Amino acid sequence: MRVSYAPGYVAPITPGHIFPMSKFEILHRYLLDRDVLRDMDVITPRLVDYADLTLVHTPRYLDGILNGNLSRKEERRLGLPWSPGLATRSCLAVQGTINASMMALQDGIAGNLAGGTHHAMPDHGEGFCVFNDVAVAIRTLRRGMWIRRALIIDLDVHQGNGNAAIFADDPDVFTFSMHGEKNYPFRKPPSSLDIGLPDGTGDRPYLKTLGDALDEIFGQFQPDLVYYLGGIDPLEQDHFGRLSLTMDGLRHREHTVIDYVRRRNIPLVLLLAGGYAPTHRETAIAHAQMFEIATEVYG
């Protein structure tokens, strides 16, 4: 399985900031050390083309990120301190998802050791999400006529409000978000299918709800490409999550989604989305489950 990764995925950040910036580097090293990936499987993206970003984001917002012209209010809403490194990592990560999309179409499955920044809107960033990598990738591939229909399976504990808003009027993109009902964002634009879970939802009801939802979605929508946003923040020890998924439950979740898509022979893109375990290493190890399960399922 090929994945996108660059050392530039790690940008300078304020010491003690809640966002686990080092998880990208730790995850990359962890997957190599455990032979889940080989060096030759890791493809370094270039910076995304400006023209591709404009398929989703406004010129005013792009200027704010690329040239450091965000207002203080915009930076607070984003939740990350602006720096040239943040602009670079954001451009690399978006291209990483575009590359992973193309690799999935070629190989059946691929991933990005970042991405899934589902809160980013056309004219602003929020919730630690700068650019909406999935939206840019989908519109880039559709412009090149590589795909027509895409499905986003978003299992981050926070609703994918950016994806929902961007594709609200697009019948060829199905947005599915299963999240904590009482969690951020508090204004949730409707996805194609939203399932809000109560605080404390554990493994059994979570997995039953997920399986039923996948049956419903694939019974009515046949995508050319699937994006899986495997946020690990539903875990019971997550700082923001408030659900009660165990690590074993997380592994079952990953297997459920990945095997479901594989059995239908639809190309699949794996993306990290969010996760805020007690330490950066624990966060990275939880993210690694998705890639470990994928290698087991795909052989």
Describe this structure in a few short sentences.
41% of the residues lie in helices and 12% in strands. With 299 residues, the chain is of the alpha/beta class.
Task: List the SSEs and their pairings.
Elements: E1 2-4, H1 23-33, E2 42-43, H2 50-53, H3 59-66, H4 72-78, H5 84-107, E3 109-112, H6 133-143, E4 150-154, H7 161-166, E5 173-180, E6 193-197, H8 203-220, E7 225-229, H9 247-262, E8 268-271, H10 280-298
Parallel strand pairs: 1-2, 1-3, 3-8, 4-5, 4-7, 5-6, 7-8
Domain unit count: 1
The CATH superfamily is Histone deacetylase domain
Structural class: alpha/beta
Give, in order, the helices and strands.
Answer: EHEHHHHEHEHEEHEHEH
Taking all residues together, what is the mean pLDDT?
97
Write down the CATH class: Alpha Beta
Question: Could you estimate the helical fraction of the residues in percent?
Answer: 40-55%
* Sequence stretches where pLDDT stays below 50 over 5 or more residues: none
Beta-strand percentage range: 5-15%
Tell me how many strands there are.
8
What CATH calls the topology is: Arginase, Chain A
- From the 3D coordinates, which CATH architecture would you assign? 3-Layer(aba) Sandwich
Q: Distance N terminus to C terminus?
A: 9 Å
Figure out the total of helices.
10
Sequence of strands across the biggest β-sheet: 2-1-3-8-7-4-5-6
Global geometry: globular
